[in-house]
Amino acid sequence: MEDRDYTVLCQIERSMLNELSSSGLPRARFYDYVRGFTPKTIRPSSALKTLQMAQVFEESSPQKNPANIQACRIWQRRLSQACEGSMEKVLFARFPWNEPLCPEFRDEDFPDSPGAVRRQKRRGTAGLVYTLLCIAFLALLVLLWQINFYVCAIFVFILLNIGLWLILCVGRLRHEYRQLSLSRSRATGDVREYLDKFTLRRVKYSPRTLKRLARLQMRQFFGINVIKFS
């Protein structure tokens, strides 16, 4: 399905480049058009294009709002990750992920903030420590209590995978949810109004959330369409 909003936004962007030194008409036209979006009409490409253009307008404005610029960057990053098929899909409710991205964004790289990179390294360190603890627990079961090695190995393997999944996947998504929610609450004006059109889904350590994540992971690994985002 053609993303008509994306086409219109590209036209506004071209007019913005032509009138960059003359007036603020492209900016006014842009936000007037974006106000007409509804949660049901937002598409992946038009969402990324809107955030990209909003960031440009905010950065070129005499009254720069760092919170709006940061919000645009964060939401572009998470939406692009979700569009690439990652677990970030669960963060956004009622979004048409089955529609392909326009070529402009297929190879686009939206870098994470240094703080996010540091947190990811800490989660990796926590995962390594948990792995070593599981190995030590396996040795304790076999050497001290002399339980069958193969039974212990299977049990520890299951325990290890569940723990790493919770640390590296669910923990990361919970942080990203808080990051999206906080950046939206700090944004102001038209940027805040646009971000309010998205419905975020809270990630919890609950059976329902874990089931949704497990189904999405099966879909990614095996190409099985077993989850419906609603």
- Strand-residue proportion: under 5%
Mean pLDDT: 79
The gyration radius over C-alpha positions equals: 22 Å
**What's the helix count?**
9
Q: Please estimate the helix content.
A: 55-70%
Strand order of the largest sheet: 1-2
User: Quick one: biggest sheet?
Assistant: 2 strands, antiparallel
Give a count of the beta strands, DSSP E runs of length 2 or more: 2
Q: Helix-strand pattern, N to C?
A: HHHHEHHHHEH
Global morphology: elongated
Structural class: mainly alpha
Regions with little confidence, pLDDT below 50 for 5+ residues: 224-230
Distance between the termini: 20 Å
Oligomeric organization of the protein chains: single chain
How would you portray this structure in words?
The chain has helices at residues 4-18, 25-34, 44-60, 66-83, 103-106, 114-144, 149-186, 189-195, 207-222; strands spanning 92-93, 199-200. With 230 residues, the protein is mostly helical. The longest helix has 38 residues, at 149-186.
